Amino acid sequence: MVDPAGLVDRVLELPIVPSFTRIGSAVRSRVDDWKPLSSYNLEGRVMVVTGATSGIGRAAAEQLARCGATLILVGRTAERNQQVVDQLIASTGNQRLSQVAADMGDFGQVRDLANAVLERHDRLDVLIHNAGALSSTRLEAPSGIEATVASQVVGPFLLTSLLLDRLKASQPARVITMSSGGMYTARLTVDKLEMSAGAYKGAEQYARAKRAQVSLNELWSQRPDSDGVHFHAMHPGWADTPGVEEALPAFGRVLGPLLRTPAEGADTLVWLAADPSGVETTGKFWLDRRQRSIHKLASTRRSDTPSRRAELWSWVAKAAGIEPV
Fold it and tell me: Helix, strand, coil: what percent of the chain each, to 5?
């Protein structure tokens, strides 16, 4: 039998522009008859959202708060975090919001963040790795690791490791990683994961980190010690966020009204956190509430070998200060 919605989706997927812009989400929401996010009741569920003070992270936090979730919002500065917490409490009426200041590229702060979550809550249902920025210049984290890799690969790996037991105790739990369609252009690499100062290109460094994220997502889902925790990665399409405006101004100007709103970019993130579908599978990659391949190019597929994945896991674990197993 022909699946009309699936056929429409495949037609959208072929050319990137309609798929990743708001055209894709608008069409898919209609043909797949998306359940409204406002219909989910998340009272009693505890969720951590990193990068929650602007853009997609803030839009996701607001919708999760409206659904009644207990939220820990994570951003780099306590003052900014608390401003957002106060604003979301005022706009949603949900009083079960708190914040922890942490730079995900500073591993000492990540450990403090994990300790704060464990001390405040006896359960953890969803961990959302959304923090991330694209820098045009090469920066280093306190560890000496390139900042994009530290904050978007090693830091989330460390936080997941530290909170894994609490997630397992709260099963079925979910870990959701916000990746990017930019990772489709990047091969999986370990020895070149951190770009040197002389060769540094912000967009390429970002894509390499995002490629590592999706490979690690699948590896987490395959580990026996992750039983009861469901891992998902996704990309939001092309959304009009402060990060895009700052890092890729020309991109924003060209696409203009075709860019998704932050709320549209956050839709699948919230859906994965709320819907029963989020615990029916694990290790998947998503766009617009459908599973997607993590490769569009033969060159990236060839790079993503089991041996390179094992090398990536060992490197990240060592960088995070965790004994690789």
Answer: 55, 15, 35
CA neighbor of 297 nearest in space, from 183, 197, 221 = 183
Domain boundaries, the chain: 41-319
pTM of the model: 0.93
Phi, psi of 97 (to 5 degrees): -120, 135
The pLDDT tens digits for 50-89 are 999 999 999 999 999 999 999 999 999 999 999 999 999 9
Residue with tokens 């961990």: 127
- Which CATH class, in words, describes the domain spanning 41-319? alpha beta
Give CA–CA dist 202/205, Å, rounded: 5
- For the chain, where are the E strands, in sequence order? 46-50, 70-75, 97-101, 126-129, 173-178, 229-234, 284-287, 290-291
Phi, psi (rounded to 5 degrees) for 282: -155, 155
Q: What angle do CA 315, 140, 105 make, to 5 degrees?
A: 65
Amino acid of residue 72: I
Cα dist from 43 to 47, 94, 163, 233, 274, whole Å: 11, 10, 21, 24, 11
Residue among 241, 245, 243, 238 at smallest CA distance from 259:
238
Q: What CA dihedral angle connects 249, 254, 259 and 262, to 10 degrees?
A: 10
Residue 49, strand partner residues: 73, 128
Q: What's the pLDDT tens digit per position in 90-106?
A: 999 999 999 999 999 99
Integer Cα distance of 166 and 124 in angstroms: 6
Q: Is 206 assigned a catalytic role?
A: yes
Q: Please tell me the distance from the alpha carbon of residue 74 to that of residue 244, in angstroms, as a whole number.
A: 20
Where do we find the tokens 């694990």?
Answer: 282
- What is the C-alpha separation between 122 and 125, in angstroms, rounded? 10
CA–CA distances in Å: residue 20 to residues 27, 49, 178, 244? 11, 23, 15, 14
Omega of the bond prior to 172 within 30 degrees of 0, cis? yes
Residue pair 87/9 in contact (Cβ under 8 Å)? The answer is: no
